[in-house]
Amino acid sequence: MKKTFFKILVKLNKLLLPKLYKVDPMKLTNLQKAILGYKYWALTNSLN
Fold first, then answer.
1. Coil, strand, or helix at residue 1?
2. What residue ranges do the domains of the chain occupy?
3. pLDDT value of residue 19
4. Which terminus has fewer CB within 10 Å in the chain: N or C?
5. Do 6 and 35 contact (CB within 8 A), yes or no?
6. Concatenated DSSP letters for 9-45?
7. Superkingdom, according to UniProt (predicted)?
8. Which residues 6+ apart lie within 8 Å of 35 measured at CB?
């Protein structure tokens, strides 16, 4: 149940949130860093 929830969440993140893979991490704003951390958290939970 938990794994499927996070897999759905990751798919929604891909559709709704901006893509930050081409941006230098040192130049991100605090909001962009928070989005990146949230996306990472959701992805790692979907893989476990």
1. coil
2. 2-47
3. 87
4. N
5. no
6. HHHHHHHHSPP-TTS-GGG--HHHHHHHHHHHHHHHH
7. Bacteria
8. 17, 18, 20
* Residue-level pLDDT at 7: 93
Q: 32-41 contacts: CB < 8 A, separation 24 or more?
A: 38/13, 39/10, 39/13
In one letter, which amino acid is 15? L
User: Quick check: helix, strand or coil at residue 48?
Assistant: coil
pLDDT means over runs of 10, the chain (48 residues): 90 90 90 93 92
